[in-house]
Write a structure and sequence with these properties.
alpha/beta, Rossmann fold, 2 domains, 5-stranded parallel beta sheet, 12 helices, NADH_UbQ_OxRdtase-like_20kDa, iron, oxidoreductase
């Protein structure tokens, strides 16, 4: 078990970067389970829950959000030096999130179109996951991750191991939930065949296609899925948008989108 020589409880921090706060709510929505967590660790920094000590040295730190400003760059390096073990949790921290869509456009042009004085905006041209800047010890995917993932990671870390992470596809979860396949039965674009489970097949269970909130699954075939989407009548730019969504900076999805664009260009479209 992770303890100090003084026998104290391990110190834990939860840090926020560019995000919607939804991943932090995974902690807060635990209810009574959060009290159990407080028995296992000393929560020294978690602004949304109360304690504020952003520069405290901790044994384990959870980081939500992506790097989007110069200040973020400085802060993430300081957190790395102050933390023994770092967990990037949520789609923004692991794959850039929705705000990383700026990576595929001219961010400066957007700022000029929206703000009267864009020079006052402190924003990088890109929005990037934590692993682009520091060593990450564990990634927990999801938008947001579920509480079992978070608690499982903490419990495993307390006992000196890493948690097992399910990487099977949302399609398998659909079968377990007895959800009708929207891709086959409804001809609806769905990212389930290339997305790892963790959401309980939430969207397909309500007749919607998967948005790939939990990032790429293992042994995925993005080219096959893109071909299926084309067969449904989707244009290349529409197919690209499915891969450039919540987990757009995941290498597997980023490369798939780039290949679609390249192939389309080669065909002269």
């Amino acid at each position: 078990m992770q303890t100090s020589t003084l026998g104290r409880k391990p110190r834990m921090a939860v840090h926020k970067f560019a995000s919607c706060d939804g991943c932090q709510l995974t902690f807060l929505n635990m209810g009574e389970t959060l009290l159990q967590l407080a028995d296992m660790v000393e929560l020294v920094h978690f602004a949304e829950a109360g304690p504020v000590a952003p520069d405290a040295e901790v044994d384990i730190a959870f980081i939500e959000g992506s790097v989007t400003t110069e200040h973020d760059l400085q802060r993430i390096k300081q957190i790395r030096s102050n933390s023994g073990f770092i967990v990037a949790f949520g789609a923004c921290a692991t794959a850039g999130g929705i705000q990383a869509l700026r990576n595929f456009a001219d961010a400066g042009e957007w700022l000029s179109a929206v703000y009267a004085k864009p020079e006052y905006i402190d924003s990088l041209a890109t929005s990037t996951p934590m692993s682009d800047h520091i060593k990450i010890d564990l990634e927990i995917w999801g938008c947001p991750p579920n509480k079992d993932q978070v608690l499982g990671a903490i419990r495993a870390w307390l006992y000196g191991t890493l948690p097992e992470q399910a990487q099977d596809k949302v399609c398998m979860e659909c079968k377990r939930q007895q959800a009708v396949c929207v891709l086959v039965a409804k001809g609806m674009p769905c990212m389930g065949p290339v997305t790892q489970t963790g959401c309980g097949a939430l969207c397909p269970s309500f007749g919607r296609g998967c948005y790939s909130c939990y990032g790429p699954a293992e042994a995925l075939n993005t080219a096959s899925l893109a071909g299926w989407f084309e067969g449904l009548g989707l244009l290349p730019e529409e197919i690209t948008r499915h891969f450039r969504h919540i987990s757009n900076s995941a290498p597997e999805f980023r490369d798939a989108a780039a290949n679609i664009i390249s192939t389309d260009a080669d065909h002269g479209h």
